[in-house]
Design a protein that fits this description.
- By secondary structure, the protein is of the alpha/beta class.
- It has a single domain, classed as Alpha-Beta Barrel (TIM Barrel).
- It is about 45% helix and about 10% strand.
- The chain is built from six helices and four strands; from the N terminus they run αβαβαβαβαα.
- A four-stranded parallel sheet has the order 1-2-3-4.
């Protein structure tokens, strides 16, 4: 089913963005292994679920998700987008609060996911993403990017360049911009 579509994408030198929930990561891993020359990016940190059946199983979800993310990262043709965690399906419930979260609160909640992804894929295969307007449910654009900057605070300047622009530029074959780079939210 998926193989046919990826064969066509590969023949046309197209990339493949995969948006799925954490339960589908092993299927994506198998697909990435079947098509090792196909560039694939996993969106939204692999969609760790936190609603319904999964709401009371956050520790179980995190453990399963971590295992599957680390296995997927062994596929050199796969990259990961760091973000998308503000959606309702992730179960952080920031949208239910009287006041929106601060960048510190978002960074604290998302740290286990973002750090795992960066450790597994490395900065050259991980990229911060904007999932707006969908993520607006849980916070503002500036607060999100400030949370990402907090999460990348211990990274070197080169690693930050990879995480915030160069990985995306390389994956999507975008031209380099002329002029100085300005961090989002400044």
């Amino acid at each position: 089913m998926y193989g046919s579509g990826l064969r066509h994408a590969s023949a046309r030198s197209l990339t493949f963005d995969a948006w799925l929930f954490h339960t589908g990561i092993p299927t994506l891993t198998a697909l990435a292994r079947k098509f090792p020359d196909q560039p694939i990016v996993l969106d939204h940190c692999g969609g760790p679920l936190g609603l319904g059946y999964w709401a009371s199983r956050r520790d179980e979800v995190l453990a399963d998700w971590r295992r599957d993310i680390r296995e997927l990262a062994r596929c050199e043709n796969v990259m990961i987008k760091l973000g998308g965690l503000g959606m309702r399906v992730n179960g952080f419930d920031f949208h239910k609060r009287e006041r929106p979260p601060t960048s510190e609160e978002l960074a604290a909640a998302w740290r286990p996911y973002i750090v795992t992804c960066i450790e597994a894929f490395g900065p050259k295969r991980a990229m911060f993403e904007s999932n707006f307007p969908v993520d607006k449910l849980s916070g503002s654009y500036a607060v999100y990017w400030n949370a990402f900057k907090r999460l990348a605070a211990s990274a070197s300047a080169d690693e930050k360049a990879q995480l915030f622009r160069e990985t995306a530029r390389a994956f999507y074959r975008l031209p380099r911009l002329s002029g100085p780079f300005r961090e989002p939210g400044r």
